[in-house]
## 1
Amino acid sequence: MIEKNTVPTLYDWAGGKEILEKLTELFYKKVLMDDLLYPVFKNMSVDHTIHVAHFIAEVFGGPKLYSEGDEGSHYKMISHHLGKMLDESKRQRWIKLLLESCDEINMPDDPEFRSALVAYLEWGSRIAVINSGKTNNPLNETEPMPAWGWGIPGGPYISNQDS
């Protein structure tokens, strides 16, 4: 329950663990029926949908089900993308199917939530494409989990030396 006059986490606003598990279950059913994405995901584990739901839950401010359970770490999540050779067409289809799934399960569609959600998907999927062309994980094994909030873009970093 969200208390009055408090800013909820993205996890709470989205609807919690159950809605994220429902989202990833529906989404990966679509992925396995998609000609472009099926080859990438055809060998995913039976627990993949739950692991991804728990990863998103933790990143969005929910319980640490992913990193404190048996599921993994940010390092481990990155390692799953290594060598997958993802490209822009796959990335865009992945986002399209995920957002369609969000609508189908009636996730919040207010502009603030969707802005934060799309920002995270853009950020994460672009990192996945970059890492998919690598063979070695660029992260340290102790790298903390990302934390995503409502955020307000501040613009690119420009050092004082560029002035």
## 2
Amino acid sequence: MATSSGSPAPEKETFTKMAKGDVEAIGAHCQMAYCHQLDFLPFRCESCKGTFCLDHRTETAHACKNEGAWARARREAELKKSSSTPPMRSSLLTPQPCASSSCKEKINTPLKEGIHCSTCRRYYCVKHRLPEDHDCKNLIPLGTRPKTTVDAQREKALGAFSKFKEWNRKISISTATKAKDMEKLVPKSKATVSAANARNALMDLKKNAKGEASIPQDKRVYLLVEASADTTKAKHPSGKFFYNKEWSVGRVLDAASKALQVENVNNRGGGEEAKLRVFHVEGGRLLDFSEKIGTPCVTGNTVVLLRGVGPPAPDLIEV
């Protein structure tokens, strides 16, 4: 089509021209050294903050200089969140019976939540939630180590020894009282009174002690023998006896138990709970059956017959 001036009319364009730089504004070049491909949907690496194409988007593909930083930061954030947020109670409850042996009611259900006892560490229904309702004091807490036979024997031994510590204390008080009374009657020094008391007690022990007449005088050891109340049937569970220094503790035990009417089942077998043992008060320990009585004991000492206190344990308790 020609114009009035005779020059041809310009043709109408059917496309839109883009200004210089608009292509780069749409996408981005891959930062990989030998790639630099223009990608209209580039990927951002959260570890090194670089921009890459589809082929080099992974940390391994572009040899990331800060590999794993994004994963570590995410893991630390999750751990911090979990430590600051209290644990949620699971919505999935596992029904179980009440821990009381006499109860069959189901707990830990949507309608009946179990009540935890912090003492015995068990779960109970509402009816048995109180300690006195489920006999809490006689239950071993869950997760604790039950007492072994050795523990039970040790506790029994300590209990027996505590009785004789009290017995020793009363004897000491009685002796001290007698010494004070004598001191009032006869004005003597305390050392003289104490020595006199010791001599009188020793003379009384030797005078009234019983034993085998065939034992030579120079071989005799004079002892005061006591028996705990739970071991003897005699009205007076004590006595003064003399034994041969060369005798074993086991032989002395046999003679003493017979004299004090104490049942002795040591030779019948069985456990330690039925056996008799000899406790040396001055030495503060149980004597072994095989040792000679004259080794630990001297004239004037006291030994006690105990039952169920276990084998000898030196230095178990100080008397």
